[in-house]
Amino acid sequence: MLKAVIFDWDGTLADTQHAVVNSFQRSLREIGCEVSDEFIRRRIGIGARNTFKEALRFHNMTFDEKAISRLVDNKIRLQLMNVEDVSLFDGAIELLSALNRKAKLALASMNNRAVVNKLLRKNGVLVYFDVIITADEVHRPKPHPEIFLKCASELRCKSQECVVIEDSVFGVKAAKRAKMSCIAIPQGAYSETELREENPNLIVKSINERKRILEFILEKDS
Predict the structure, then answer these.
(1) How many CA atoms lie within 13 A of 168 on its CB side?
(2) How far apart are CA 203 and CA 147, in angstroms?
(3) Binning pLDDT at 50, 70 and 90, where does residue 114 land?
(4) Are the beta carbons of 164 and 202 closer than 8 angstroms?
């Protein structure tokens, strides 16, 4: 029986793509590094540090951890200045409300704590989550399962009692590696075909497909 639901944030509950891409691009341009928006979109979910490292490696630019930290700090500053560019997807609050008190809820985001906390408060959904884990609390990014396993531990649930809701191939891979059920939503940078290749337990078109999502979570093995 499923006892806990672990949500991704970027691209799953909230439409953050423009704000995320813009903050990365502005930070990279300041050091003369040019990549396409698609380059960044396809890496949302692996964490800012790894995205910056991949962009710099793509251009054969040298860096150290201090340089990456400066880029991450700048990216966070820029995102915090543009919280109005972020809105919840239709159906997000309704789904969270429907699950409230019927399952434990966690948020597992590879965005940074300062950004996540501000956006959760701005959008009025902080109250729904029993546990919130961000990039600042893990050492290994998705597709490593660390972030989901940490959520399960803090929720005091076994992996088999958790379902992850994700929009990226990195997230689906991480959920499967954590031995958790997974609902995939192709409303971010990845297509339904790409997500299906990772064998999620259920694919829905959007977070607004509340009935199908709730049936899977609340009726599984009941």
Answers:
(1) 25
(2) 21
(3) very high
(4) no
Give the residue from 49, 43, 54 showing the smallest Cα distance to 21: 43
CB-based contacts of 216, cutoff 8 Å, min separation 6:
163, 181, 183, 201, 202
Helices and strands (H, E) in the chain, number of each type: 10, 8
> What residues does 104 pair with on adjacent strands?
4
Q: Can you give the residue ranges of every domain in the chain?
A: 4-16+86-219, 17-83
- A 10 A CB-CB count for 121 gives 12
pLDDT for 136: 95
Tell me which amino acid residue 90 is: D
Rounded Cα distance between 81 and 89, Å, is 21
> According to CATH, what is the number of the domain 4-16+86-219?
3.40.50.1000
User: Is the pTM higher than 0.70?
Assistant: yes
CA distances from 190 to 21, 93, 170, 186 (A): 15, 23, 10, 6
CA atoms 132, 9, 119, 65: torsion sign: positive
**CATH class of the domain defined by 17-83:** mainly alpha
Q: How far apart are CA 141 and CA 135, in angstroms?
A: 7
